[in-house]
Each structure stands twice: as C-alpha cells, then as structure tokens.
Amino acid sequence: MRLGVVMENRFICKAIIIAAIAAILLFSGCLGGERNAEKVTATLIIDFNGSEGTIKPGNKTVWQEIDEQWRIIESNENGGRTVWIFRNVSNISNVFELIQRAAQIGNFTLDVHYYLGMGYFIEAIAGVENERPGRGWQYWVNDEYAGKACDQWYLENGDVVQWKFAEASW
Q1: Which residues contact 163 (CB under 8 A, 6 or more apart)?
Q2: Which one-letter DSSP state was computed for residue 152?
Q3: Is the pTM for the entire model greater than 0.70?
Q4: Is 5 helix (H, G, I), strand (E, B) or coil?
Q5: How far is residue 90 CA from its own chain's centroid?
Q6: Which of 43, 111, 166, 168 is the most exposed place for a label (fewest CB within 10 A)?
Q7: Which residues contact 20 (CB under 8 A, 6 or more apart)?
Q8: If residue 76 lies in a helix (H) or strand (E), which one and from where to where?
Q9: Any idea what the Cα angle at residue 47 is, between residues 46 and 52, rounded to 5°?
C-alpha cells in the first residue's frame, strides 16, 4: 500500500514540474505563444546610410497607400543618401512583418536568418549585406534601439520603425 502512495506522489510531482516548465516556455515565447499580436499600423524608414539602395539611389523616396494601391508619392534628391519611407503600413503586428510587407510594396529583396531560441535577424536589405566586422542592419522603434530579433518586437499603432545600416552596436 505504501509503495502505491509513493508512486502516485512521484507522478504528481513530475506532472507539476512539467506544467511549470511548459508555462515558463509559453510565457517566454519559446512555444510560439504570441504576445500582443494585435494588428496595427506603423511607418517604416530604411536608411542606407551611405550604401546604395536599388530604388532611386541617393533620394529620399516615400511610399503611401492611396485608393488601395501603393505608390511612390515623393522622391527627392537627398544629398546622395538613400532613404526609403513606407507610410502607414497596416495589418502588421511586429517589426519583422512590417519589413516583409515593405519588401513586397517596394519590390526589393530581404535576406533573413532565423536563430533558434532568438528569432529572425535581417542579413541584407535590397542586396546591401551586413559586414563582419563593421556596419550592419539594426533597427530602432520610436528612437529606441531595439537590441533583439525583429520578430520579437511587437508594435503599437503609430509606431515608427527605422532600419539603419550602421556601425555594429553589438
């Protein structure tokens, strides 16, 4: 009789430990639990910072959706600095979805790498690749340096995300 009670207690302890580990993983996002996955509208700025972009190099180029069509509404000489702005991109939830949508709108390539346990990192935008060591693609949200994978930063309505080809901050 005593052996049955001991075995039952061990089973209960194991079940509690497994449930606790699963809860920790779920709330940390490791099991794919989405946090703040509501769809929002945000603006994206891509600053090539001295590197050439493939669309209107040396210009500040602005895209905006008008009558359900994305169009370039402004393209001005920018002192040789290529900057792309995608105004009010909607139906996205995180920085990764935002830049993916901009790549579709602007018809440019986006090279990404997924790091297990961390998330998606941008390796190249429009053919401009990260340098090792040196400059690379980094992003800020509302002027705050992100410092984490772009699929891990969830956005709020009206956020402004800036991707910049800059000296490595890592």
Answers
A1: 44, 45, 46, 47, 99, 122, 125, 137, 138, 139
A2: G
A3: yes
A4: helix
A5: 15
A6: 168
A7: none
A8: strand 69-77
A9: 110
Domain ranges of the chain: 1-33, 40-167
Q: Which residue has the higher pLDDT, 119 or 12?
A: 119
Closest CA to 83 of 55, 109, 114, 47: 47
Q: Which residues of 116-159 form beta strands (DSSP E)?
A: 119-125, 128-129, 135-141, 144-145
The correct CATH number of 40-167 out of 3.40.50.300, 2.170.130.30, 2.40.50.140, 2.60.40.1930 is 2.170.130.30
Q: Can you read off the two tokens belonging to residue 51?
A: 């590197």
Residue range 19-56, pLDDT digits in tens: 555 545 444 444 433 455 789 999 999 999 888 778 88
